[in-house]
Amino acid sequence: MHPITPSRLAAMKDKGERIAALTAYDYTAAQMCEAAGIPVILVGDTLGMVVRGEASTLAVTLDDVIYHSRMVRRGAPHALVIADLPFMTYRISVEDALRNAGRLMQTTGVGGVKLEGGSEITETVARLVQAGIPVCGHLGYTPQSTHTLGGARVQGRNLDAAVQLIGDAKALEAAGAFAVVLELVPTEIAAAISRQLDIPTIGIGAGPDCDGEIQVFHDLFGLFTDFQPRHTRRYLNVAEDITGAARQFKADVADRRFPGDEQSSALKPELSARLSEYLGQTESLAVEG
Ligand SMILES: Nc1nc(=O)c2c([nH]1)NC[C@@H]1CN(c3ccc(C(=O)N[C@@H](CCC(=O)O)C(=O)O)cc3)CN21
Ligand SMILES: CC(C)C(=O)C(=O)O
């Protein structure tokens, strides 16, 4: 059972099969995604925010993504696992991007990398693809540029910006990208891009007309509760459930309901009696001594 490939995603788009993608940052989360049949898993640099509690994705390093990608690949041997190239690991030079993406592919077993940006990085995208590294693009709100974009806001809200987005998407496709994430993009623009490209678009806050949809695992299942992006939907409230269960555990420990006999191992009655006798002697000696 070989893993899902980028060409498989293209075939899904051709057949009109929508692509559900989730982020995952560790082995058990990856296992759950795989068991659910999620075909695409992203080791996103959002791990800086939802796993570590940082204010942005910028502090995540290549070594961090490698560390998490290995866990995710182990938990999801069949999905197409894509890993984010972190902030500044592909912008200094094409050579630096090749070296970094090459190390990521070589040390983790992921099936591709994701880069944020449009026409300004298409040379890099083309060179990565030529080197055998499948590349997913990422347009619209690109969190690694949060400081220049002025925070998480919808992009492409005037005609120039809309035309630029469509041009960037086409340029990424021409450079050999196998898919493109559209984040915080108005529905009509995402729909036009999805129609005009042969490669699949994966939306997040980009309306219902993309070829697929990606969501952050911790948002979808109510694990991350610092803020709730408008583009997400809570399918579960896991943080609430776990907090309640932890409170119950604390009370059980306090009131001696945990651990019980099932979580413990006792001696055979005969040995137990002999031990009691021995302890009775040594403990009375200790008291007398
Ligand atoms: N947990 C998480 N989910 C994401 O989807 C995500 C991240 N983090 N970090 C990187 C970017 C940032 N993104 C965001 C962040 C916030 C909104 C958003 O809708 N914010 C609300 C305000 C939320 C609040 O402060 O309560 C808004 O209405 O603008 C959207 C996209 C998308 N990405
Ligand atoms: C929000 C998704 C698309 C992402 O880029 C990430 O998780 O880092």
TrEMBL record:
Q: What class of enzyme is it?
A: transferase
SUPFAM superfamilies recorded for this chain?
Answer: Phosphoenolpyruvate/pyruvate domain
Gene name of this polypeptide: panB
* Required cofactor names: Mg(2+)
Record GO terms (molecular function): 3-methyl-2-oxobutanoate hydroxymethyltransferase activity
Record flagged with keyword Transferase: yes
Assembly mode: Homodecamer; pentamer of dimers.
Q: Can you name this protein?
A: 3-methyl-2-oxobutanoate hydroxymethyltransferase
Annotated 3-methyl-2-oxobutanoate binding lies at D45, T46, D84, K114
* Task performed by this protein: Catalyzes the reversible reaction in which hydroxymethyl group from 5,10-methylenetetrahydrofolate is transferred onto alpha-ketoisovalerate to form ketopantoate.
Q: Where is it predominantly found?
A: cytoplasm
**Record pathway:** Cofactor biosynthesis; (R)-pantothenate biosynthesis; (R)-pantoate from 3-methyl-2-oxobutanoate: step 1/2
**Which of this chain's residues are annotated to bind Mg(2+)?**
D45, D84, E116
Checking HAMAP family in the record gives: PanB
Instruction: Establish whether keyword Transferase is in the entry.
Output: yes
> Which keywords does UniProt give here?
Cytoplasm, Magnesium, Metal-binding, Pantothenate biosynthesis, Transferase
NCBIfam families this protein is in? Answer: panB, PRK00311.1
| Compartment(s) | Cytoplasm
Known EC number: 2.1.2.11
**Active site residues according to the UniProt entry:** E183
Family that this chain belongs to = Belongs to the PanB family.
What does this protein's record comment on cofactor binding? Binds 1 Mg(2+) ion per subunit.
* Cited Pfam families: Pantoate_transf (PF02548)
> What reaction gets catalysed by this protein?
(6R)-5,10-methylene-5,6,7,8-tetrahydrofolate + 3-methyl-2-oxobutanoate + H2O = 2-dehydropantoate + (6S)-5,6,7,8-tetrahydrofolate
Q: Which InterPro entries match?
A: Pantoate_hydroxy_MeTrfase, Pyrv/PenolPyrv_kinase-like_dom, Pyrv_kinase-like_dom_sf
